[in-house]
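Records of this kind hold a single protein each, on a pair of labelled lines. With that in mind, the following record should read easily:
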Amino acid sequence: MTRTRFTAAVAGVILTAAVLLSGCSGEGGNRSSGKADSGSAVAPEQAQSQADGATADGKVPAAPKSGGNAADQPTVTRAIIKTGSLSIEADDVDAQRQKAIGIVTGLNGQVVTEDSGSDLDGGITRANLTLKVPTAQYETAIQRLSGLGKRTAIHQESTDATEAVVDVASRISTQRAGLERMRALLAKATTIGEIVSVESELTRRESDLEALLAKQKALAGQTELATLNLVLSEPGKAPPAPKKEETGFLAGLKGGWNAFAATVTVLLTALGALLPFLVVFALIGIPLWRYRHRFRRTPATAPATGALPPAE
């Protein structure tokens, strides 16, 4: 009887332990499945949100870089200064010059300076124009101007002035903020010394701001308008063939005669230049010389002798 009770107790303990173990494993499985279900439920939501973000602007947003937010990095427009020169040969320089001015005007540009040369008949044989065109139309201007004739030379140069433009803009902003603070201090100044000191500093900062604004305007003019130097000229002529040097007796005689004739020509030229002066000197000098010579040859008059005293 006692053994039967002991066996029943052991069997009850084993059965209880088995039930507890099965319950723990089921709960763990439910927890694991719950986590998996929640993960699977979140994944479609994230995928849907990413898809919505991708279709909202037509492209997938880029991941932000480490160390900074992409929204804090504004896009900077590059400021480029473009300059160049173009040489064109044309038969009618004057007509092509007028066409060049029309091309630049049509591109909202202007002619800054113009220098031209002409022949003895008054026809223009050379023209040098300094042109200003919008930077966006620079390549178009070169293409159209190259069609005026034969392009013999071209030079282009681009300078990135973005750093200078951004620096000047930043300094202008800082200077304006400083001026506002100085005006506020001037309004609060109570003594004459404070007023004089603040006004002096305010004047200096206003002068600095004007200089920065002038520099900003100059940079804007250089970046918004490209400079192009256009040279129009007639086609070059072939150089004449060099003359063959002559040698021998006849060549020496000819050279000596040419030298003699050149010397005589120089002497006659000098004589012709001096002849008017010689005539004037002769008209004045000869009468004076004759008068002086005549005066020297005239004898001096003897003094009159007194009467002899009577003899005693």
About this structure: The chain has six helices and five strands.
